[in-house]
## 1
Amino acid sequence: MSLQNFMNKAMSVWMSSEGPDSDIVLSSRIRLARNIEQYKFPTLATNEETQEILAFFEETFANKTFNNIGQLELLKMNNLQQIQKRVLVEKHLISPTLADNAAFGGCLLSENEEISIMLNEEDHIRIQCLFPGFQLEEALNMTSKLDDWIEEEVDYAFDEQRGYLTSCPTNVGTGLRASVMMHLPTLVLTQKINRIIPAINQLGLVVRGIYGEGSQAIGNLFQISNQITLGKSENDIVEDLISVVQQLITLERSTREDLYNISKDQLEDRVYRSFGTLAYSRIIESDEAAKCLSDVRLGIDLGIIKDISRNILNELMILTQPGFLQQYYGGPLRPDERDIRRAALIRERLSLEMERKKRMEDDES
């Protein structure tokens, strides 16, 4: 399969589309944790109980159309190969917990992959909407509609004082996790991020890596999300996060401008060296690839590198992960083989971008 055809089938909307403030914010996500009243939480439930829940959702919601997003397809974890599950994790459509531990776990997935409903993970139901750019309010609106749609068929575990009941006490209340994925290269480069993260934590928010809790901030990508779910409404939680993200956007943009004005030659040299590494390397490890992709994305945003889509960072950050590499090349790869294939895939993707640029120039002439 050609890379272009593979990308057309493999890329989620949030990876290949631009949204508001997409120079800084790659994606916005809302997730709601819910449990069914008459069943024990998945952490205590028997295989028979979780299998019964999965069968109920298959009968009630699979292949049903919601709003204008088309049908929801049910993916059963025990029917998927390990590489397929890893790809879903890399695309942020399921959690590592669901991929690794759920004997009778599943995921209801919309065709455009904006909507993902995990079943029998830490909670019976985890509803997720994932939008490109800075669209938290839009994602909350869609998630709330999905929540109402499911509740027409399900009795949620709910307490008048505590709110929605969840397996983990930190999710009790609204059960809501709102998060944005941000590219903050100059805040890292100037070390301002070291002062910002503690300040954000004091506001009841948390800063994590690209794959959430326990993951590293590779490629200067950070997830900013709420920690508090109890005592605030869903709208208040989202509004608080929006306020902090807007400040981070302003600070990252001003830092980029200041850095470019003060150290133009050094910054351009860094960007072009990284571009050369990506364009010509024959072997590249994931950490080095992530660093270079971040530099190139910064160069695109600053106008140093022209006529290359900034979505290339979104795409290549995912395409060069182990699951995607092995799916594209058709089977398991050793770490050293992945480093070789990663370099080849990046060169191929940049070549496609150059071809796109040339076609555009030919059409204009």
Note: Residues 78 and 222 are 31 Å apart (CA to CA).
## 2
Amino acid sequence: MKLTLFSTILLLFASFCEAGRPNLDNCDWTGSGTLEMALSRGVQPVYLRCNQGTIRWHYPQGALRIVLQSRSAGSPFSACIRRSKGSSGARIYLAGKKKLILIFNSEDPVDLVRCVTSEEGRVTLYVEADPISDLLRRTTAEFSYHLKKVSRRSNESLADECQPCSEEQLLHHYCSSDFVLQGKVTNLFHNQRLQVTELTVRISKIHRANELQKFPRISNDITETVTPSKYVILQRPLKCGTKAGSGEYLFLGKWILGNPSLDCVPRITEWKKVRRKALQEGSNQCLLNL
């Protein structure tokens, strides 16, 4: 069926209005800067309510205003962001109360991860396209996000993520972490480029480990019957100033945008005390292994 010019314009306008409506159940967003920016006077609103997802912006022009919310509406969280390989054409800002704070520019490493805290249960990002002379030049600004719940009761925030975990936090993370590994630190590398400290850990026991094949490692593959000669590389924020200690530790953490990020690193002797107390008081939330 042939469409008149007027009908075509109406269809385009209706499609744009439908795309512009806030759909708070979306995890991903894909769009083009060409038509959207022209119709929205330069800024395209994007509303996402999901724990993790990806934004792809083809032919960036103007800006995106992206509002991230967790599925638990109003709950505080931290949002970690990572630019994808090949991403170009835009800068990413955190929209603060009075100013924009630069998170990523086009020259930052694509595997760099940066995290920010929510305000009133949301994180608002402002993604601004770089000036370009060729509007038809093929560019795509792409990045992923991961939301991590923050406890109100413990007043946990990015400001104190380097502090040792309390007994309550140890028990919670032991039961909820993506991986719980026991072993010794054999090497420490402060990666300035990625702003993380990389801990090479010789594993003696696996308490839990989702997606074993994804762990960065320096020797043979880890299996469920792991031997003490197996190694993995885990990460902590560089700002924590992590130092290598002797003895055996328990490493508890989650996968954040493809990286094994540590939440708690108690000594095994400390963990055994916490475990024994929890079993005596019946405060354990899951089976606590030795």
Note: The two ends are 71 Å apart (CA to CA).
## 3
Amino acid sequence: MKVTLKEWNAVATWHWDMPEDEVCGICRVQFDGTCPTCKFPGDECALLIGKCGHSFHMHCLMTWIRQDSSKGLCPMCRQKFEWVQEE
């Protein structure tokens, strides 16, 4: 029996390389989901990982940092927030 493929539809998924139970420290949404600002997961909303080890959606952290009360500190541990630069 010979089978000829006439059409093929691919389906793909993606996820951040983070533990599944890891959530944004600000909006409390899993990283594979969307932050409150985005419509779709990964919508130019990268993950920012601080040197302190806490992770946030980029939009959530930028909103936090813009507040005067944040004083540039991590919302979780209150250390000066500096993110890890990936090479």
Note: The beta strands are 47-49, 55-57.
## 4
Amino acid sequence: MGTTRIAALAGHFGRDIGRALEKLDGIFERLVQDGVDLLVLPDATLGGYIGDLRNPTVGPLPEPIDPDGPELRMLCSMAGPMTVCVGYAERDGELRYNAASCLTGDGVLGHHRKVHQPAGEHLAYAAGDTFTAFDTPVGRLGMLIDYDKTFPESARTLALDGAQIIGALSAWPASVTDRASRMPNDRQARLFDLYDMARAAENQVVLASSNQTGVTGSLRFLGQAKVVGPGGDILAKTWSKGGLAVADIDIEREVERARRTLRHLDERRVDTYHNLLREKGTR
């Protein structure tokens, strides 16, 4: 398949969906000219994220959109040949989900609803219930949103479904309860990088991690977008401010090379994992 140019964005996106679409139009035009094949945008790119994890219903919630509506159709028309993962609040009848779609100029290729919900997020969103990989022009891909990547089973399920690329879209804030004076010293900043590297290495896949920046309500977002290789090595990274992490990688060749001797997916001993399917709180 050859070399793929992957870009993961760190940037601030707020409540104004129209403004976000205008901003993305310029970003897409530039990145298509730069030969970017895959762009992973943050969670909540369209409509912004909640402003308080413990009390998300204090203040206005992000405006939900229809995944078949004009906003995603507009992004498809902007994307052209580029594959794009984008996050938003999804409307489904009376429910709203923290969701992401993967799309190109040909239409929507895949969809994900955030499964794992931290703190009080369940007060603002319903929870998704599945992890599924799908085919794209850059290879088989799966998506995670925010807290999903804290759980190894999430990325492992995608890898077992054939994903060689994981798009991890985040609106990941600094620690809410133990805030550090400097962002690089923040506990969540360390964990954010650790999870990205671990999920790539343990599944021997390429991972593109985006994140929001700036402040929404009481939340201060970390940035730290990155592209991680299948050995867990960071190939490109931004810091706390907005920016773009870009890496050129032959995905198929690098995944095959990582799995040449040690094949983590094939060498699992599922017969010994006796308690994986037990309900929480049981022994």
Note: The mean pLDDT is 96.
